[in-house]
Amino acid sequence: MEINYVLVVAMVTYILGTFTKTLWPSLPHKYIPLQNILIGITSALICYFTKLEPSLIEAFTLCFSATLGAGGMHDLVTSLSSKTTEKKEENSQE
Question: Does position 72 have pLDDT exceeding 70, yes or no?
């Protein structure tokens, strides 16, 4: 069961992400957590109604933790890479 809900979350993320990037390319980054919540809700409902998860609460818990965790990891990697770039720029100016 675990692989199935991960695939559902990945597909919903890909579809909604592509949809968002094509319709609103200038969407501010502050709305990405809202997009992750929408992905979590959509994924949870798909998992529940396709009987991948027997409980609606379990479906919401799994899908929310997957989407918000992925969003948090993306933010962490982005902030760490921007700090590394800033340090390289500071060292090159000296």
Answer: yes
- The structural domain count of the chain equals 1
Q: How confident is the model at residue 57 (pLDDT cuts 50, 70, 90)?
A: very high
CA distances from 37 to 31, 40, 78, 83 (A): 10, 5, 20, 27
pTM over 0.85: no
Specify whether the CB–CB gap between 44 and 64 falls below 8 A. yes
- Domain holding 57, by residue range, is 2-93
Please state, as a whole number, how many other Cβ atoms lie within 10 Å of the Cβ of residue 54. 10
Listed residue (34, 42, 50, 32) closest to 10, CA to CA: 42
